[in-house]
Description:
Elements: E1 3-4, E2 7-8, H1 17-33, H2 48-65, H3 69-76, H4 80-93, H5 97-117
Antiparallel strand pairs: 1-2
Helix pairs in contact: 1-2, 1-5, 2-3, 2-4, 3-4
Amino acid sequence: MTMCKGVPAGALPDGSEAGQQVLLVQIAVSQVTGVALAALVQPDRGGVREAFARQMAMYLCRLLYTMSLRDIALAFGRDRSTAMHAIRRVEDAREDPEIDRRLAWIETVLQRMEACHD
């Protein structure tokens, strides 16, 4: 497990709503990108695919669940500035139709899951 200011990565409270939302996003991104779930919270950057998949997951946590940068950073074992950079990078990358299509699909799936849960 990685540490970010003394707190393990993925350290949002077990069973909390935010913790469950992060996990759902991570699973969805992992499935769509083919990047291992563990790679999304590994301490090092990993390859380009792993880093961008992690950035996608951070972006979706912010977009869909309006999580704070602090909580996103904590969940992924990063700092706030890294989370902010990730979100901006993915916003810019959405100009690519393939990336936009993948993100839109993940958003739809997660929103439908959320609607079924309510």
